Amino acid sequence: MMDDAAVPDDDAFVSSTTDAYAAPTDAYAPPGSDAGGTDAWAPDAFSPGEDFAVSPTETRNTGASGEIDVPVTITDQRSFMVVATSENASRLSVLSVTDPSGDTVLRWEDWYSGDHSYTSAIYAERTATTINWPVHGDDPALVPGTYVVRLGSYRVDGITSRPDVNVDVTTITNRDTDLSSGVLRVVVVWADGMADDAALVTATEAAVDHWNDVWSMAGLSVEVRYVESTIDPDLPYPAAMTGDLLDTASSFVTPGEIAVIVGETINSDTSQYGVAGRIPGPVIRSPISAIVIGWLANAGGDGVFSANDIQLYGEVLAHEVGHFVGLFHPVENAFDRWDSLSDTPECRNAFNCEAMLGTNLMFPYSICDADGCVSTTILTNDQRGVMHRYTGTR
Ligand SMILES: [Zn+2]
């Protein structure tokens, strides 16, 4: 068992949070506190399908060590995900993943303080955490046997161990072995009144079509259904303290779906396009299970969607959900932190990064001039490898 000394230091925590989630194209926030409704199980909800399995949720206590080991038994599955949630005074993170032979295949120490991002799971920033395994095409494929995911519970500082925390643990597995084509299921949750705006609905459907075009180049498609909610259209930024709202928003998904909330603004900011709170995010309801999109920013701030705006809107959706299925920016805004993929170059200044990566879907900001924004449609082989290993992709 690890002790408190094994917990991440404050600098790494802050820098990772800032780099991974604060980029210009990334501002998305969680919906209003009066969100929700009980009609989450819409009649047209997708059925999970036989390749996709969700365990019963089990409550565990982290005990004196502040840690628990979650076993995940694999027979012939391709990917698994563990989702853990606690209450407001706790923060959870993943400490390690051990394979059936006892080898540790993920250690938080290997990634926490470095300048390459691998998974948000290792940062104890929220009341919930999730790990998707494998992460990369370079990670060993699953083998039969029992994997062990070690989780830790911390105080709200994300650093100090907090023992005796009850944690609800759910395991999801996916048996689909096709790593070249796949489908992701998405629920667009309209914030209050948005579904009544015919121009917004039309623009969103057109943006979803463009999203599908972009992702199709990576062998992926999205199936989208739409639900209405009473969520406040001034969406909040995804954070520990807005977890209740994300939880409510994700009550509209059935297991295997991802919630995308479309509201007017994020934190009342008309320039925030969208934010995916975690990389990756869960495919079941939880306090970290929603992406927020502010439509006004996507419409260019004038409230009217031009063809260029719809292109940008579709690429924002593709980008934010790209985060949710596990993709980091190939380089962060400050050009001093990178993803951990080998085929995305490590550029170090705006000029070089825009030249080498400016058309990559996961570039951290929009490159725009009076004629519009550079279209970002490129996904590398390694980026595709992450997307096809996401447990929600089948
Ligand atoms: Zn981003």
Notes on the protein architecture:
- With 394 residues, this protein is of the alpha/beta class.
- It folds into two domains: 4-9 and 51-174, Jelly Rolls (Sandwich), CATH 2.60.120.380; 26-42 and 180-389, Collagenase (Catalytic Domain) (3-Layer(aba) Sandwich).
- 21% of the residues lie in helices and 26% in strands.
- It has helices spanning 10-21, 109-112, 198-216, 243-250, 295-298, 307-324, 350-357, 381-389; strands at 52-54, 58-61, 67-74, 79-85, 91-98, 104-107, 116-117, 128-133, 145-154, 166-174, 182-190, 220-228, 234-235, 257-263, 265-266, 274-276, 290-294, 338-339, 368-369, 372-373.
- Residues 1-47 have low confidence and may be disordered.
- Residues 23, 25-26, 319, 323, 329, 364 line the site of zinc ion.
